[in-house]
Amino acid sequence: MRLLKIFLFFAISLFLITGSAKYFLSQRKLESINIGPGVTQVKKLSDYFPGLLNTPGDTDVFILEGKEQGGCVLILGGTHPNEPAGYVTAKIIVENFLVEKGKIIAIPRANLSGFTHTQPLEATPEKVLFTWNNKKMIITIGARLTNPVHQWPDSRLYRTITSQQIVSGSEQRNLNRTYPGDPDGTITEKVAYAIMQIIYSEKPDISIDLHEAAPEYTTVNAIVAHDRALDIAVEAAMMLEIDGIDISVERSPRDFHGLSHREWGDHTDTLAFLLEVANPSQGRLRGKTDENLVLTGIDKYYLRAAKAGRLNVPYDENGLPLTLRVQRHLKTILTIIDVFNTYNPNRYIGVTNTVESSF
Ligand SMILES: [Zn+2]
């Protein structure tokens, strides 16, 4: 009888563990990114740095090349996989944009490992169902940092590669602190190194890193630009303001190293930008965190904070929907390209956005 009880206990436990493990793994399975009509080549990061081959950092690199020669723009989404607007914007570009002149290189899941987990205690929904241009897409939400299963343990502190600056240890799993990367370093440093190799070999004129931030964060609804890219950022911001899109420009801090816009701009000739939109589902003031909050950005505590003048972006009962955040990113990218084209006719980048982009 005792043996039977033990057997039953283990059998039931095994059944429950298998069931929950299956569910867990199914939730972390990544949705496909469709190859749009403009895509001319799909590469991997390991094509630029073989050290990433067969590692969890080896993400897809989509190339959209026009028939006519022109300039080149590099677009990164998913540097922080808990910021869906960046990933979704890059995915929409891959699936819908056409390039007549020049080239787009898009990496929707820059930190692929970060898409394989969510951050403990953040209650992030693992999947959300997003509708764009009447099409439904399932989106995986990940974590800000590389999965500790792929990079562990963290040292207590992390010294950024190009300076003596010391940051918190967990930041060594933050792709946006590990540039210009290290071919012999951690998986995050190797991904950063591979992205630098893309910039060295493909020589993009413009490089844009797409992000989201909490509405109470100081750098939000903003273009952060490397010193050499400031003129274009300011003119693009003026154009966007004329179109009714409120956006600020910030100079990339000179003494804050490891960041994409700082290191891309310091080590290569590319014009480096980082774009931030406001996402209440990653803010500290939020209440219930669920799919609805990610999609609509409607939150009663953010409304109270807005009424108390504590936010850095306009906020009302309509929230800050993911659709709006993606539209802001798309419009800002296209405006930066437009301004660049005005001053660089020899490196003209001719892009058609085949999806609705009204703002
Ligand atoms: Zn970010």
UniProtKB/TrEMBL annotation:
<dbReference type="Pfam" id="PF24827">
    <property type="entry name" value="AstE_AspA_cat"/>
</dbReference>
<dbReference type="GO" id="GO:0046872">
    <property type="term" value="F:metal ion binding"/>
</dbReference>
<dbReference type="GO" id="GO:0016788">
    <property type="term" value="F:hydrolase activity, acting on ester bonds"/>
</dbReference>
<feature type="domain" description="Succinylglutamate desuccinylase/Aspartoacylase catalytic">
    <location>
        <begin position="72"/>
        <end position="279"/>
    </location>
</feature>
<keyword id="KW-0378">Hydrolase</keyword>
<protein>
    <submittedName>
        <fullName>Succinylglutamate desuccinylase/aspartoacylase</fullName>
    </submittedName>
</protein>
<dbReference type="InterPro" id="IPR053138">
    <property type="entry name" value="N-alpha-Ac-DABA_deacetylase"/>
</dbReference>
<keyword id="KW-0862">Zinc</keyword>
<dbReference type="InterPro" id="IPR055438">
    <property type="entry name" value="AstE_AspA_cat"/>
</dbReference>
<keyword id="KW-0479">Metal-binding</keyword>
